[in-house]
Design brief:
This protein has 333 residues and is an alpha+beta fold. The chain has three domains: 147 residues, Nucleotidyltransferase, domain 5 (2-Layer Sandwich), CATH 3.30.420; 101 residues, Nucleotidyltransferase, domain 5 (2-Layer Sandwich); 68 residues, ATPase, substrate binding domain, subdomain 4 (Actin, Chain A, domain 4, Alpha-Beta Complex), CATH 3.90.640. Helix content is 37%, strand content 27%. Helix 2 packs parallel to helix 3, helix 4 crosses helix 11 and helix 5 crosses helix 6. The model has no long low-confidence stretch (mean pLDDT 90).
Length: 333
């Protein structure tokens, strides 16, 4: 088969592209740099981040905002760039493309995304809801499982779904993701230490010493901050402080997991409780996250292998199993 099969996970902060037979070929910021008038795309992904970092008149634009909102013109431009990068200029054999979308988008919005993908050079365009793609990428047999919970922890939002026999029984999209944890750390530092963390430092603390559960051994990280007088300074932050700071948003996600469990029909509860929850997305890499949800939601949880890639991989894998997608009429040929 000469045409490629491409799965695209266009997230709030990161875009990942999976190509059948090659694996993940793109893992870059979901960012574009456009000219001052917004008429021309200057750079995409990592190149856009580097261009914007040099200053100048280029403007930044993200196709996906806060996890759910999508700029469809920007999304189409990014998909076109990605297809061109993977396929090259010679598009005799146009690719089959599947794009994951937030589950709450409307039918009109889905149609707009499909048309943008076709315009970008796809032979056939399909859409799949992110939770279903994440489950497939986590190697769940979605067509035959009698019940499993999926928690996809993204940068802008977290999707929680109960899945059985190829369908989502219940779903909740929670406007809390990795960015909300970063903001919680920034707010805690400001309240406790009276300083403002420099951009990116809260995320560095979360990744470096953060944990959903109480850390077994204390760890510290030195961060760049700005004092009340506007002067730069260094702040030594402990893992325990980070753990306390992120409890509220994590508890909100645990509450969503419990609600989705409750919304599923009673006859599915035994399977859901037995199989538990699979955690995917970049946020699933937080230390102690599975233990946290197991304790707080009362449902056994585990982190998928390579959780950040699950949506992209599942989006690509779904191209070989299109029955559910076609039944939902979310495709154009």
């Amino acid at each position: 088969m000469l045409s490629k099969k491409i799965g695209i996970d266009l997230g709030t902060s990161t875009v990942l592209v999976y190509v059948k037979g090659e694996g993940i070929v793109v893992n870059e910021p979901a960012l574009m740099a456009i000219d001052e008038k917004g008429a021309r795309v200057l750079a995409v992904g990592r190149a856009a981040s580097e261009l914007l970092g040099r200053g100048g008149k280029a403007r930044a634009i993200r196709p996906v905002r806060d996890g759910d909102g999508m700029d469809y013109d920007a999304a189409g431009a990014m998909v076109q760039h990605l297809i061109g990068r993977i396929v090259g200029r010679q598009r005799i054999f146009r690719p089959d493309v599947m794009l994951s979308v937030p589950p709450m988008v409307t039918g009109v919005e889905r149609r707009a995304v499909l048309e943008a993908t076709m315009h970008a050079g796809a032979k056939t365009a399909y859409l799949i809801d992110k939770p279903m793609a994440a489950a497939i990428g986590a190697r769940v047999s979605v067509a035959t499982t009698e019940g499993i919970l999926l928690v996809n922890l993204g940068a802008g939002s977290t999707d929680v779904a109960a899945i059985a026999l190829g369908e989502m029984l219940a779903l909740e999209s929670i406007p809390i993701g990795g960015a909300a944890l970063d903001r919680a750390i920034e707010e805690a530092v400001a309240a406790t230490h009276g300083v403002r963390l420099q951009p990116g430092e809260a995320e560095r603390a979360k990744v470096g010493v953060g944990s959903a559960t109480r850390p077994a051994a204390e760890a510290w990280l030195e961060l760049a901050a700005v004092g009340a007088d506007g002067r730069s300074q260094r702040l030594r932050l402990s893992g325990k402080e980070v753990q306390i700071a992120i409890q509220a948003p994590l508890l909100a996600i645990a509450g969503g997991l419990q609600r989705v469990m409750a919304q599923a029909s009673e006859d599915r509860h035994p399977s859901l409780k037995r199989n538990g929850a699979i955690l995917t997305g970049g946020g699933a890499q937080l230390r102690g996250i599975a233990e946290f949800f197991t304790a707080q939601a009362g449902i056994p949880a585990r982190v998928a292998r390579d959780p950040q890639s699950c949506v992209a991989v599942g989006t690509g894998m779904a191209l070989d199993n299109l029955q559910v997608i076609r039944r939902g009429q979310h495709y154009i040929t």
